[in-house]
Structure formats: structure tokens, C-alpha cells
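Extended Data, record Site-specific integrase
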Amino acid sequence: MIDDTSERSRADRPLSSSFDRYLQDKGKGRGGEGGNYRRNVARELERFAEWAAGDRGGEEWVGIVPESADREPTFADLDERVFREYARHLAGDRGLKQNTVQTYYAYISAWCSWCVNEGYLGAHYAQRASATAPLPEDDGRKPGDQQAWTPEQRHALTRYVDERATEAIDAYTTLSNDADQLDRQRARYRALKAARDRALVYVLAYTAVRVGELLRDPDDPRRRGVRWEDLNLQDGSMDVYRKKQQWDAASLPDPVIAPLERYRTLMEPPAERWPVFPTFDQRSLAQSVRAELADRGERPDAIRERRDAYARDLLLALDADIRPASLTTDGARSILRRLTEDAAIEIEHSKHDYLAPHGGRRGMGEVLVRAFGYTVAARYLDNSEEMVRERYSHIEAGELGDAATEALDEIDRPESIDHR
């Protein structure tokens, strides 16, 4: 059973109590004390803490601590409304440029995600739609400035998840027949998790599907995450609820098929309506299992016995056909952040210190535009050709530059110059 005592105690800690550990995790060099990213984040975290305490934000701003309390801001004070106010503060009260507002907010958002993973927060409030609403729209930065997975990064990440999944699956499938039942379950769980992560990476890397079309959005009941019934691995297609508010078929290219097939074989989903990418969050799964078994008429002591017989609630859910929720978009970002770090992939980007989901989509856009042009890329990306030309204008600019160089070389050749 889950003991949430430590989680409650962490919620009561001051925000600043997490800063040193977070910065150490994000820093470079010995002790995690170096790196420009670390210095920039440290500065913005201090500003956020001062703002939360009421020391910044204008004369009428008193901070996020209730007026009756005499203490520092704690994690219990944080929710999406706090981050919405901070986004509004950045956008309107500091005279910052639009791209700077986005960058500074991204620093705080990344810290918030880390706090979720470390147990300080129960949800990634900073990325909720209502929290980010006050942030300025795109200010016209060149699309090339947005993160796009490079071929080297894509290959490094897929190679890492391949190795990790192969190792976990082999460890499970080669267990001896007389292995302890719980040990077998633990091995299967590790294999399932590694296989799920690999399939997710491949889909994000090669399909160019938006992460919001693939996974669950808690704020939009229509986006419940793709299910196995939505996939046709034989035809290489997947039905997704598009950004344009309608269902449509997306392509599953060859590199994606094998990881999905291997993953499905390992999972053996009890029904086609099961999510392709279920959550592995233990707290969420425990709640689902308890609630469903209770609805089926089982008493608390019987439910406890059934759960105790399994190493993880996910395995009980599979055997009992208790359909879990799909992984959320925030969950996918957490997985990619972990995998990027574990694979030791270097990221040089002002906004993201990991391979973000949208970077996979933009990376495929780069590949398709360069290989087949804007029309084909637009169809694959489910965008208008006009928008694709705008977002990948740096490619056309580079090609025109090459053409100009070639023309100048031709004109400036000695034999082409008339010396009369």
C-alpha cells in the first residue's frame, strides 16, 4: 500500500527547499554546479520565489500565502491559478520580449515537472491550459529557432530505447520456469514499461502526430488517448482526433510497426478498447483497481488480497480487464525528459533541456520538406502548405542561399568575365 506521509510533508516544505537539488540535477560538471542553463534557471527560480512571497509583482501584489499565515510559500500553496498569475506577471509587468517571457516561464515549468517527479507536487500545474493562457502568442521567431530533433538525436534516442527494451524483454522471457511468481511479475512489468516507452518514442519520432492527438488531455474528454482499436498495423495507419476537431487517419511508417507489434504481443491487451499507452502511475492505477473491483461487488479485504498477489496493479488490471487511463501529455514529457537524461543526449536549446514531443514532429517535418517538398510534408503533418512553408521557411532560405552562391560562382568565374 502507498504511504503518502512523505508526500504530505513535502507539500508543506518551502519552495526554496527544492532549488539546490533541482539545480544540481540540471547542472553540468562536478556536483552539477556548472552550465549556462543552471545559472539562468537559478536566477529565475529566485525571482519566482520572491514573487510568490509578495516581494515582486507591484504594490498590490501580496504573494500566494494566505494573509493569516506568517511563513514562506510552500508547495501546498501552488496550483494552476498561481502559475497563471505568474504567466500574467511575466507577460505584462516586467516589460519582457515575447520570446523571453516564453523562455522564463519554461524554466519554471521545467522545475514544476521535476517537483512532480520528486513528489513535491501532485500535478504539473504549470502546463495546464488555464495556466499558460496569459503567455504571449508566437512573436514571429523563425521556425528554425524552435526545437526539432536532429537525425543524430533521433537515432541516439531510438537506439537507447531499443537497447533498454531488448534487455528488459530478454530478462523476462528467459526466466526459468521455477522462478518466483512475484519475481516473474516484476520482470514482466519492467519489460512492459520499457516496451511502452520504446513504442511511444518511435511514434513521436516518426509519425509527426501531435502529442495531444496521441495521448490523454485531462481538460478535454474527447482526447482520451489512442486505443488498440484505433491502430491498423497491417495497413500502417492510426485513427487520431486531430487538432481540427475531427477524426482522421495518420500514417504509421515502417520503423514504428515492429516496436508496436512487439509491445502488443508482450502486453496482450484484454480488449481492443485498452489504451495503447496506459499510465504506469501507481497511485492512479491503485485507485482504478480498487474502484472497479468494488463496483464488481468485491469486499475491501478481498480486494486487498487480490492486490497483494500482484507485484503491480497494472498486472492485475491486465488479468482482470480493468481498463486504466491513458498516459497524459504531461506524462509523455516526463518520460522523454527521463529518457533524454538517461541516454546522455546533449541538448542545446533555450527553452527545452530535453527532447520534447513537439521536437519529434518538427524533426520529421524537416526531413519531409528537404526530401519531398512542402506539399508532401503538409499532407503528412496535417497542416496547410502555407503554414508548413512559414514554419520551415529557414529551409527554403538556405536553399535559395545555395542557389545564389552557385549563381555567383558561375558569374564570377574568370572565363565568364569580359576583359575588353
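Summary. The chain is about 55% helix and 5% strand.
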